[in-house]
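User: Fold this; tokens only.

Assistant: Input:
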Amino acid sequence: MKNIIYFLIFSCFACQQNTEFSEEISVNTNTKNSETTNLYKRTSMLDGSLDDIIDANSCALVQLPITVLANNISLTIATEADYILIENIFNQLPTDTDTLVLNYPITVTLYDYTEVVLNNTTDLAELKKRCDAIPLEDRAISCIDLGFPLKIQFFNTLINQSFSETILSKKQLFQFMTAVSSEEVFSIQYPIDISFDIDILETIDSDLSFKNNALSCSTN
């Protein structure tokens, strides 16, 4: 009899936990294939457009430092602030043909935060070709930045258990969104802050607000 009573109490407690979780995330619940999941994944991809003057590839970021020849002038690019050195050389003569020669091998970080070593210009060209083949709807959304930390609550329907995770960076957010399984649902805990390229700060309170902002800035 004691075992039966214990089982009933435990079952009711578990039921209560799941009901509370469902009520909390019912409005902003997402799955592996939700539009919101895809938009958060795209927003958290690595922005490789910062160094396009070096690799002409918005899907990858060249790891620094590197040495280059800009119009036959040797430069060491140690930080992102040094990109301007290349621009200044290219702007000296507006009618000439600008050339940039990289000192290989170089290491690049891809949009999904994996790293690849490129040994020559052929490798770089092949990487750019693969980047250009990515459909527009799957590319990084770099016009919007999220304010961290973010808190995500998720529920695994297979083991009937809820969890929460605090996200501290774009890389961690991308990895979370990529790892969501078909047995999981999740909810971003709002409100959160977002900012845009034009330095406008906004606080959003729902998936709908996030989707509207992400889609609006990515299509403008």
